[in-house]
Amino acid sequence: MTSINLVEKALLVSIQDDVTDTEIMELQDTLSNRIARNDVRGVILDISALEIVDTFVGRVIAQLAGISRLLAAETYVVGMRPTVAVTLVELGMYLPEIRTALSLTHALSQLRRE
C-alpha cells in the first residue's frame, strides 16, 4: 500500500515493498489528480521501505517521475539504500527525470530554492 501526504508544497509518496500492479495504477491516477488540484512544486518518492528493487519497481519510479514532470512538478527520491542504487544501475535503469536527496528535509530544502 502507498500513501500520499501534502508537505508544504510537495506531495510525499511512500512506496512500500509489497506494492502491486493494481495499487500502482491507482497511485498514478491519484498522484496526477493531487498534483493538479494542490498546485504542488514537487513530488518526493520515499523508497526507504524497499529492501530490493527489480525492473517493475524501477519502471514504477520512472513512470511516477514522468507523470510529475508533465504536470510541472519536480521529483525527488529519498531513502534510497546503497543496495537499491547498485541494483538500479545493474538493471540499466537510467532515470534522468529524478533527483535524489538524502532526506525529506533535504528534498524540501531543494524545492524551496527552485
Structure characterization notes:
With 114 residues, the protein is of the alpha/beta class. Helices cover 46% and strands 21% of the residues. The chain has 4 helices and 5 strands; from the N terminus they run E-E-H-E-H-E-H-E-H. The protein has helices at residues 21-38, 55-70, 82-90, 104-113; strands spanning 3-7, 10-14, 42-46, 74-78, 98-101. Strand 1 and strand 2 (10-14) form a beta hairpin. It is globular.
Q: Secondary-structure blueprint of this entry?
A:
Elements (H helix, E strand, L loop, with lengths): L2 E5 L2 E5 L6 H18 L3 E5 L8 H16 L3 E5 L3 H9 L7 E4 L2 H10 L1
Helix pairs in contact: 1-2
Largest sheet: 5 strands, mixed
Tell me the series of helices and strands, N- to C-terminal: EEHEHEHEH
N- to C-terminal separation?
A: 30 Å
Main sheet: strand order: 1-2-3-4-5
The tally of beta strands, per DSSP, is 5
Radius of gyration equals 13 Å
Q: Provide the CATH top-level class.
A: Alpha Beta
Oligomer: single chain
Mean pLDDT over the full residue set: 89
CATH topology: Transcription Regulator spoIIAA
Helical content, roughly? Answer: 40-55%
Counting helices, strands and paired strands, the structural category is alpha/beta
Q: Kindly give the count of domains.
A: 1
CATH architecture: 2-Layer Sandwich
Count the helices. How many?
4
What is the 3D form?
globular
CATH superfamily: STAS domain
Strand content: 15-25%
Low-confidence stretches: none
Pfam family, one: STAS
InterPro entries: Bact_StressResp_Reg, STAS_dom, STAS_dom_sf
Protein name: STAS domain-containing protein
Domain STAS: 1-111
